[in-house]
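Page 47, continued from p. 46.
Same chain as before, 78 aa.
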Amino acid sequence: MSAGETNVRDLIARGEVLLAYDQATALLAERPDAPGLRYLAALALARAGARDRASAELDELDSRGGLPANDARLAEDV
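Result:
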């Protein structure tokens, strides 16, 4: 996990979900094919109550190959 992903995850854990989403999208502008960042962006949106936008992020993640089913992050967040 990159330092950027760790920072976004920490923001989500502290409940700063909108700031986490902003940081995730800024990092995605630099690394659009980073599945972990796209997943965290979707998680932040879902926790903020923006389920439709979160669903769109997950659809984008899925279209790019998604996260492996055994990815530990999924177990932590579900």
